[in-house]
Specification:
The chain is built from 8 helices and 10 strands. It is of the alpha/beta class. It has a domain of about 70 residues. The longest helix has 16 residues.
Length: about 240
């Protein structure tokens, strides 16, 4: 089967890069995580998703990744209804999106270089391209001198930069970051956010879930506030403090 090409899909359509159309999600436990949400995110936007724990933010990320399906409504990425993807297409779709998590999720038995290269190997990138792309990406995140180090030898900030390099090495048009600074000190948190802002300036659509009020207030990006599974505020340029429920 041909490789899922999100870049192609985005070139072919004139639609939001991410669209929630009256989406609800109820888990088998009976928890109503998301309730009738409609949201459009355009190509090239930088969007913060904020709200208290359990508000539905992480469920929205899971829906964007097709890690779960809506109980009601539809989720579109690049104009494609994720609910209609065949099982064989889901993993290919996920490889087209960059994802960064709070807990880094690096392969502990592989070097920094090997961790980033792995993201290209799974999509069958030629080895000659990997040898060119991985060092360039590690240079971008300031880790050229750590190619042969293992995750256990790195600080938390360095591990998150490796995770970011891995997420970006296949040049995704969308990057989802779920609490990317949650385990970092303020200095490293700002380094990660500056890198995300630079990636966004290059055209990548960025969606960040965070509780970090200082970062959200300072960066003045679009802020979508969620409370009890419902969007209660959507400001095109705002801060966490101004987006309280």
């Amino acid at each position: 089967m041909a490789r899922y090409d999100l870049h192609r899909d985005l070139r072919d359509i004139d639609a939001p890069v991410i669209l929630f159309d009256n989406v609800s999600k109820t888990y088998q436990t009976g928890t109503h995580a998301v309730n009738d949400i409609s949201l459009e995110i355009r190509k090239g936007e930088f969007v913060f998703l904020v709200g208290s724990s359990g508000s539905g933010k992480s469920t929205m990320i899971k829906l964007m990744l097709r890690a779960c399906k809506p109980s009601k409504g539809r989720v579109y990425v690049a104009g494609r209804d994720l609910g209609r993807l065949r099982r064989s297409q889901v993993s290919k779709f996920r490889r087209s999106i960059g994802v960064v998590f709070q807990d880094f999720r690096l392969l502990q038995d592989r070097t920094v270089y090997e961790n980033v290269a792995f993201a290209q190997q799974v999509v069958e990138t030629p080895s000659r391209v990997i040898k060119q792309e991985v060092p360039k990406m590690l240079a971008m995140v300031g880790l050229s001198d750590k190619l042969n180090a293992y995750p256990r030898e790195l600080s938390g900030g360095e591990q998150q930069r490796v995770a970011l390099a891995r997420a970006l090495v296949n040049h995704p048009v969308i990057l989802l970051a779920d609490e990317p600074t949650g385990n970092l000190d303020p200095k490293n948190s700002w380094e990660i956010m500056r890198l995300l802002e630079e990636v966004n300036r290059r055209g990548t659509t960025i969606v960040v879930v965070t509780h970090n009020r200082e970062i959200v207030d300072s960066m003045q990006k679009r802020v979508v506030t969620i409370n009890n599974g419902v969007i209660v505020r959507d400001e095109q340029k705002g801060g966490y403090a101004h987006a309280k429920n």
